Amino acid sequence: MLEIRNISRHFDRSIALDKVSLTITAGEFFTLLGPSGCGKTTLLRMIAGFDQPDEGDVLLDGKSIIAVPPERRPLHTIFQNYALFPHMTVAENIAFPLRMVGCRKPEIDRRVAEALENVSLPDKGKSYPDALSGGQKQRIAISRALVNRPRLLLLDEPLSALDAKLREQMQMELIKLQKEVGITFIYVTHDQGEALALSHRIAVMNHGAIVQIDEPSRLYGFPNSRFVADFIGQCNLLGGKVRQVQGDRALVDLDGLGVVHTLIPPHAVIEVGKPCTLTLRPEKTQISSALPALRGPVTQSEDEAHFKGVVHDMLYLGDVTVYKVELAQGLLVEALLANSSSGRARFFEVGDQVEVAWRFDAGHLVME
User: Fold this and answer.
1) Per-residue model confidence as pLDDT tens digits over 280-313
2) Which helix H or strand E contains 303, and what residues bound it?
3) Could you give the domains of the chain?
4) Which one of 140, 162, 286, 312 has the largest count of C-beta atoms within 10 Å of its C-beta?
5) Which helix (H) or strand (E) holds 155?
């Protein structure tokens, strides 16, 4: 449906976008994710027509829309501040796009009522924006954007001003709404959890370039670089060198820890002697005062890596506790433990001797 073809944009001496290309299919919830200044909002502005690229093209259904002014593109943009007209009622705000295209009043009234019903605010038509909560303003902004059924809906960090509980509620509403209306959503955020929860696919951006495009579960489980692994959720990044390749496994000499076995990712090119990073999620790292395989001396096996350490720090999050364990040479490894037992959760304390372990297929190996 939408194709971004070799888009570049420069501001003075800085590069905002560097030959960015991607395709987005009809009905997709597609997210642009990255740290501040990575170029995601600039790219969204190119799609909306608010800014022009120095080179490259934007195609909708195979036809260039670079020369089409913003108001004539079949899309709408929802900004972080919602951009509702304060002097208009909610109903007048929603009706505004319909009036601009010349709809008759009976048709406008019908579609406004339908739009308010769709976002569960049927009684707010006569209210003014300053009388609404943040979540209600967000819903009205979405209603106004969808009322004339655009081909694309662009959302620029629309939930960042909401508190955590309301943000989660609005995420569920966005997923439901996108499924119901079938419109393509292009969403910009720097919030990794939000991107993982909402998206069909995610483009991770850094320094004006796309570094990986994939489904959320693959981005999380199979990052293609140290940057993506570090940016998407919490992750242990264990540097080392590839010592040997044996079938579908690699023997990796981790800095300060020694040699461990790890699974080679499908289609990965692993070079012996080259630097690498083992990316290991905290929830895949076991922690115990006495892991079953660790009674007695600490040993390494082909299927598991085992290390002794000391609890350096801990973070209680309610449902889970994250422990930072100091291993050899001061290396810190995070391990996650679910607080699922009945009664008051029992914790390790700072300074406790513990053992950590992970299976050979728990981590994901990336070459540097």
Assistant:
1) 999 999 888 865 544 444 455 678 888 889 999 9
2) none
3) 2-226 (3.40.50.300), 234-367 (2.40.50.100)
4) 140
5) strand 152-156
